[in-house]
Amino acid sequence: MKALYFPICGFFIALLLVVVYFSKPRVKNSETQVYSWMLIASLLDTILSIALLSITYINFDGNVSLIKVLNKVDFLQYILWANLIFFYVIDVSLKNRSLFEKIRRPLYITCIILDLLVYAAVLYLPLNIYNQDGTMYAYGPSVNLLYGFCAVYLLCLMFAVIYNVRNLLNKKYLPLLALLVFGSIIFIVRGTNPGLLIIPAALAYINLIMYFTISNPDIQIAKQQEQIVVQTKKINRDLRHMDRTKDEFLSLASHQLRTPLTSMRGYSAMLLDGDFGNLTPDQT
Q1: pLDDT by residue (tens digit) across 116-159?
Q2: CA angle 170-99-174, nearest 5°?
Q3: Of 104, 202, 250, 275, which one has the greatest count of Cβ atoms within 10 A?
Q4: Burial track 6-41 (b if 16+ CB lie within 10 A, e otherwise)
Q5: Which H or E run includes 110?
């Protein structure tokens, strides 16, 4: 039963995040959309892991086929989560937003097609279940392909961290560092003690780190309000500039009009002061 500790801890973290995150108003952008799906994938992963271990402890011999099916369904959560964190990395790493908008759709479609092909191969390849002395884990070609594919995504994250090494102090990159650390731990644990299921808890904890860095709805709304304040200040500066321009125009216009009007007034006074019956040629 000790193997249930990590999945149960991950379940409560994932459930808490889902309840808190979706119960609050949030800014809708590419980051928050990706994070929403990451929360759902993590919660489903913890539920499936708990179900797998519970069925194994209750009656393994009579549910081997069901355990294999649930394992392969759970593999889809791993692929989905790895794909989502990859999308997140692309989103926060590309500074050229116009370029990102151009490549986002074809990149997403390509990744989804690749994920489906790999998952189809995972479903087709054989899967074995080890269950002795209270330890249960899956192994075989199906599992090897899954972890190999996820390792490719992990390498992409590593290159992204290296590429953005100057921006590592940015809070948006903390989940990447956490993922690299936890990803390395997962592969080490998988090689030394595959029966220790720490993946559900690790994914939930990474989601928790992301919540307190960039995906917290309160933080997102605060950022949006800050942007509104900045835009308001810019509008006020533009209005003040327009007001100064208007004053300068009116001052210039009044000066240009005052000069000929003053001349006309002077000539009129000269005419009024003269004898209208004996106008000189110049006065005429």
Answers
A1: 999 899 888 888 888 777 677 788 898 889 888 888 887 877 77
A2: 15
A3: 202
A4: bbebbbebbbebbeebeeeebeeeebbebbbebbbb
A5: helix 97-124
